[in-house]
Each structure stands twice: as structure tokens, then as C-alpha cells.
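GntR family transcriptional regulator
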Amino acid sequence: MSIPHYKQLHQLLKQQILTGTFQEGALLPSENELCATHHITRATVRQALDELVKEKLIYKHRGKGSVVSPRRKSLGLLSFKGFSEVVGASHTPVNTEILHKPTIQPWPEDFFYPLSEREIEVGCIYLERLRFADNHPVMLEYTYIPTIDLSGFLEYNLGKDSLFETLHVHYNLDIINVEQDIRAIVADKNTTDQLGLMTGAPVLHIYRRYGTNRTDFYIYSSLYCNTTHYALSNSFDS
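Predicted C-alpha cells:
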């Protein structure tokens, strides 16, 4: 079965945009030029361009034509490095709002990773943070840390200081790996309100278990990521 003409043109233009033949801000050939070059109708050309608009690869500028959209910046939020380190390295301004200060409490029932008897016995330090990149809310993070040899931890200002840096400097505790479970979900009202999204908007939900340089000491996080302004990239280098 042959590929429809509009789809062929759509795929060709998409490839040219993604490979840099047409750079950000560049004008695509006019509808008339595309009709003449590819021997197709104006309706077919417009259907192909509409597909590119839906994919946010181009936008229509009245009086000019079809313009290649700026590419979204990407953040290495899939790295096991800390948010401040990863996002700050991209020269993007970052800040953190503490929604729930660190407190000692029992682990939630039906926790998202299996817990050892020792972890269950000691309870956890729980905190909630909203993370911003260039003043855009990009991550809602719920963190759980076993209450083992972390004397004085509740006194540190994690709105100002990095969690991982605090653990490294004051407790000689370093992150060495991460296990992640990533899926797209429809966010609930609290999540969308915090991330500045419409109710029911899709977000990425990530469960994480960080391995550390202490034997059998893990840090756990449940993250909700807003990818409206930034794409997520893989950055697993240490």
C-alpha cells in the first residue's frame, strides 16, 4: 500500500528540520514552491504542514509562511545526579520550594519499592519539594530517606542547599546508582496545580531508588515531571 502524498511530504520536511537542513527560525519553502517541486496539490501541502504544526516543529506566521520552531531545551533529569547539579550545569537558573519540611514518620503503606525490616523499623525522613528551572515548575518530588545515622538532618535548609551535597558533606553519603520506573500518567489535581498544568494533563511519573556508598542504604523518590518547557534527556554518566 502506497504512502499518501501528504505523509511523504510530512516525513521529508520533518527529516530536514530534525537534521538541520532547515534551522530554527528558518522559513520553509512556500506552499506554491512545495506544490511545484513535488507535483502535488495545495490541499496536500497544507495537510503535511498541519501535521508539522501539530508536532510543534513549525508554526504559521501571517505574511511570512511556515517557520521552524525553536527546539525545546532539554534537562538531564533522568541522571542520578542531583537536580541542582544537573540543571545548574546547563546554565539554567534553578530554585526549590519546600512544600513539606523534612519530618520523621512511618513509611507509607503499599510503598512503591520493597523495604527491609530495618528500614521499616527506623521509619523515614519525608520531604516534598517543587523544583523550578528558569522559574518554570518542572518537577514535583516526594523523597523518603531511612532514619539511620542522620543526626541533625532536619536542621538543614534544603530549599537553599542540595540534598545530595548535604548528605555528602555532613554524612559522607554518596549516590552511586539509581533504579528507575518511568511512565506517562494523567496527573491528579494537586499535581497539575503545583506544576501549573491543566487538570488531567499528562505528566511523566518516575519512581526512583538511589543506591549509596553505604551497604543497603537507599534513598527513595516519587517524581512528577512537567515537560511543557523542557524535554528530558538521558544523562547517566557519573
